[in-house]
């Protein structure tokens, strides 16, 4: 049996997410946007709640197509609020639409969102050496900085805790605990 990080339950969905996505470096803007939306909807909830609704989010939000989302009409916004398959928080739904437009603004400014976000770590993941749950922080100075920068640009639901979880999800930070089979054994 594989030894996984402390937060992974016996849920196959959770295990697959941990084993195949979490902490893997993501440079594709479409996937970076998907994780940004999912992490903002997760704020205040458990990640498994979001994972369980991920396919519903894909359908409801046009496969996370930020160009379409940025141009959603009031009718589309209202229909999302009626969609029982997603998290129907008015502010979070509105933030997804707002953040889609701002995401494209960042792309225009930096060439891609990937270039922007990965510049915070000089394009190289930070590998932490955490042994147990208590060692893993909810926020860091880096997540504070990214959060402040995104908020200054107008992004919503991008507090430091959300940004730290986002950095973990997209592999900017590798927080697999040292006892996890995904922990990189060869660290410089």
For the termini, the CA-CA separation is 28 Å
Percent strand equals under 5%
| Domain unit count | 1
Let me know the average pLDDT: 95
User: What strand line-up does the widest sheet have?
Assistant: 1-2
Helix/strand class = mainly alpha
Pfam families: Adenine_glyco
Protein name: DNA-3-methyladenine glycosylase I
Organism: Polaribacter ponticola
Secondary structure layout:
Layout: H1 12-20, H2 29-42, H3 47-60, H4 66-70, H5 74-81, H6 90-110, H7 113-118, E1 126-127, H8 141-152, H9 160-169, E2 173-174
Parallel strand pairs: 1-2
Organism: Polaribacter ponticola
Protein name: DNA-3-methyladenine glycosylase I
Pfam family, one: Adenine_glyco
What do these coordinates show?
The protein has 188 residues and is an all-alpha fold. The chain has helices at residues 12-20, 29-42, 47-60, 66-70, 74-81, 90-110, 113-118, 141-152, 160-169; strands at residues 126-127, 173-174. It has one domain (26-174): Hypothetical protein, domain 2 (Endonuclease III, domain 1, Orthogonal Bundle). 53% of the residues lie in helices and 2% in strands. It has a two-stranded parallel sheet. The radius of gyration is 16 Å and the shape is globular.
